[in-house]
Structure formats: C-alpha cells, structure tokens
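My main concern about presentation is that the manuscript never shows what a single data entry looks like. An entry of this sort, consisting of the sequence and the corresponding backbone structure tokens, reads as follows:
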Amino acid sequence: MTPANTEVYLPSEDTATLARVLRSYRGGRVLEIGFGSGAVLRSLVPRFELVVGRDVISVAQAVAAKGDADAVLADRATCFREAVFDVVAFNPPYLPSERIEDRAVDGGRGGLDVPLAFLEDALRVLKPEGRVVLLLSDEADLDEFKKSCGRRKLRVEEKVREGLFFENLFVFEVSREDRD
C-alpha cells in the first residue's frame, strides 16, 4: 500500500459540481474512489444502501471525513470483489504533469494517467449494468479520454459542463456498451 497522504484535497467548485450531479443517482451500493474531505461521500449516504469511500489518507483524516459512510484505506480498489457496486464515482487528480508530485492534483500525462487508472479500478468493481460518474477538467486531454473509453467499448455521456473563469469542468457518466 502507498503511504497515506497528509494533504487532503479541500472541497472546491469541482467537488460541488460532482456532488450536485450525483444527487440524481440512488440505489444499492456506491463507491467513491479518493473520497478526500468526504464532502461527496457524505452526500451519497441518504440515497444508497451502502456507501463506501476509498482513499490513501491517514486514519484520523478518514474518520473525520467519512460521516456515516464506510471508509477503506487502500491504494486503488483491488481490495474489493469484482462487480459489486451499482455506481462508482470519483473526482481524480486531472492536471497534466510530467510526474505525480502532488497526489491531490497531478494527473500525469495529458492529465489522464490517474483518471484512467481510477476508471480501470472502477470498471472491475462495477456491476455490468452499473455507472461510473467522474469529473474532469478541460485542462486534461478530453479527446484522448473519450478515445480511450471508445477502445474499451464504453459509452461516455456528458452530464454537466460548468464554466469557471479558469477552466471548464465536465462530469461524465461512463457505462458499458453491452449493458442493455
């Protein structure tokens, strides 16, 4: 397991945007990959039977952030069985960077190394008919993100586009093409 982060991403416009989109989702089991401050995680509790957050923060930070949700301290989602979640959500680090120096914001090449790694984990633990809901910025290579999803035979639906003075935020719903 990777050492725990001491820095937790503080809720910002992107956090609020993802939480707002997720208000329309409900069901059995939901996982948030990288729950950080817990703002999105706690907002899911009233609408799902089981709410689980996964992150690499300290135990004290996790206890403070999780509210009534369950928290798992792990790097990636390898600790979960396959096909158990109805929804997997995440607001990954997405800023383009040559190296991952700040795990809260650095997304790697094109801002996609981390988001695509999160997506791989999400797809493994997602039920066949499930949905992945994620937030990216136009700072990331969105065309390459969509092409990567296409190569995996995934549908990508833009749920929200929100313009800020310094970037545009996008919330996407990703699902398997063969789910119907």
Remarks:
- The first strand starts at residue 27 and ends at 33.
- The CA atoms of residues 116 and 148 lie 8 Å apart.
- The chain has a mean pLDDT of 91.
- The beta strands are 27-33, 48-55, 70-73, 85-90, 95-96, 106-108, 126-137, 154-163, 168-176.
